[in-house]
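=== Structure Prediction Worksheet ===
Name of assembly: unnamed complex
Input type: mixed (protein and possibly other molecules)
Chain count: three
Listed entries:
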Amino acid sequence: MNQKGVMSLVAIGALMAAVLGMACVEEPKIEKINIGYQPSSHQLAAMIAAEKGWWEEDLSPYGIKEVELHLFPTGPPEMTAMLAGDIDVAYVGAAPPIASIYEGLDAKIVAGVQTQGSAIVIRPELVEEYERDGVLALKGKKIATYPPGSIQHTILVKWLLENGIDPGKDVDLKAMTPSDAASAIGAKAVDVVFVPSPHPEIIEQEGTGVIVKWSGEIWPNHACCCLVASGKLIEEHPEIVTQIIKTHIKATDYLKAHPDEAAEIFAKWQGADVETIKYSMNTTDAQWIHDPHLEVESSLEYAQVIYEQNQERYESKGLKPLTEAEIFLHRLYDAIVH
Amino acid sequence: MNHTLRLRNVTKIFEAENGQREALDAINLVVKLAEFLCIVGPSGCGKTTLLRMIAGLDYPTSGEIILDGKQVTGPSPDRGMVFQEFSLFPWKTVLKNVEFGLEILEVPEKGRRRIAEEYIELVGLQGFEHSYPYELSGGMKQRVAIARALATNPSLLLMDEPFGSVDAQTRNVLQEELLEIWARTKKTILFVTHSVDEAVYLGDRILVMSPRPGRIIECMRVTLPRPRKRTSREANELRERLLMLLGSEDRKIHKG
Amino acid sequence: MKLPAVLREKGIWVVPLLIALVLWEIVAAYVVRNPALLPRFSEVIFAFYLLRHDIVPDILVSLLHFTIGLTIAFALALPLGIGMGWFRTVFKAVDPIIEILRPIPPLAWIPLAIVWFHLTHYAAGFIIFLGAFFPILIGSYTGFRDVPKVLVETGKVLGCIGHRKMIRHVAFPYALPSVATSTRVGMGVGWMSLVAAEMFGVSTSGLGYRLFNEFYYWKQMDFVMAYMLLLGLISLFLDRVFRHVVEERFFRWKKGIVK
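=== Predicted Assembly ===
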């Protein structure tokens, strides 16, 4: 074997050793928790607990020195971060984690956060058409909503299909962040927007759109946001996950008892107008909850809709529509409440 | 028509950053029909500048250049020019290169093809019509350049050291061929060269120029019968004479 | 170890490629074990089969964006390049503006593209136009600027008088290889810009769009990599075809000089 041959084999060998080595390194003891959340009033519990310092206060007995919140515009990128291990816990709609679990994400829904709370907003000029034709008025329109795999996208697709509208051919669906969607409808670049509170209310206050339907009217009591924990955290530190759920329950109860203060915290954190947010808290059909069992039925439906959207792919991998046990882990919540 | 070229008191001054440079000083010259006129001189004496002004590529600062009773004001295919090298259009075949001047004159396709083929044969390159310049040797390229310049039937053929870039052997061959072409076409040729040998072999008259600013020092008649022997006694004497002339001019500068 | 001589001469590139693919498969399957982080090579190949309904329509839409952008870039860059290369004054006047705009990455223009053209095919075409325009412009004006003096003067003494005639008969044929090569470069840059333009939602279909607005959100990384491969292969294909059809055929003479 000549020199070059030996050198290349050594190089390949070193490369493999490095890669294998990286996979085998032990994780150090956990001192920091990363929580993902979105700029929606659905996830006020996360912001309130952070504002009041409850995260760090409640978790320090478990050796946690720092809790950092990470903002994501919508659910799917948040799940990418979770897949990469950048966040351990996520406040996110129920659909993105389901979509990611199909793709191999190791995580479970451990608590509920809220149901309903999104709205269809239409450009003022088109409201008359909507009042006349209902959902069929959406045919041929440009609709901005959250990306594929999100609650909004999933509900919208289901609603369109139920009314005989092909989401791929009969409408022009555009995936956007909430701020881009608000700009787009303001610039008349899109006709319809379907996003979670408080964005529909903000758009309405600006006069660039009119709320015509709440998601609770499309699908009563549909699950929206939930609390997701990584499989790793659940397995290695169930006590931390339990405490996180407890803090979440505390924050949720606080939020329901003090809606105005909650609005102020949201306005402060996201740079929004306080009065608009207070208006939103009164108008939205969102229901803040913490019991994961309340989200099971609609989540299983999401799992079915998402499965159908990717049927050939999942079938080729031998996957079936997800079951409750594959999505939810109720045991920790149940232990707290009973 | 009396194709006479007349230069009257032609002077050329170049503007440079550090002042003016006088290139040619009061050149007076008459070129006769069908004459082979050689111009020799040291580098920088302005012989190329002179040729370019006759071609119309440059213009005199004062004085006149008159061809056939009319002043020369710009380039024209009536005054064909052969440059030293790299003048063939590399994207055109030999045939298309030679046809170029005719194409610009809007001669119809069949006609210009026939003319071009004639001149290609004249310079001895039949069979190479569809070759590209990059496939040709240096000597062949210059033959094409000559054919191309002749194709538009110019009154005057101006040649600026056309054989300066080829090897000695090829140079001699090309000189002989040029004389044959001259005999056949009876063109008036102005031939600028560095080489005393070449001037003696080719010219009816030899203009000797001084170093800058260029003046005509002497106008030598060469009455040697053609075809000439390069090494005949008379040829040698002429060469010696020329070299002396050029050498003394050279010494003048270096002493001065 | 000595590879057989035939392999060494003609197919030496196969060896590192095979090693890389095998390594990829092993690392993905046994080390990373997370298809969302690193899909296996075999999964990526299978993805082409799963995506068979979407691939052709997506390619066609992307090629449409690409063609729009490239055609407009060429149509604008060539005349401007002729002006800048042939006329010194034009160059001096326009070059500073060009040199300020040129370094701005096409992607940075996306917000403006969205505002000016909304979310239509024209916005995507605009970004591609920006990518292709500058290389073609520079190649063009370089070609026209570098026409050798002896050729210009030869043209003149053969009766080619005036800018129009000179450009048509002498400058343009001389500059053509430079224009062609820079167009090929422009095509490459334009294609890269296309993916980014489509990613940002300026269209509703196409390779870049589907990659970023579907596969990424669904976290279907094997689909992502399949489309990545496709993008690279198409670019390679366009480049080679252009080279073969345009450069090899028409510019043998340039090779002759350079060689």
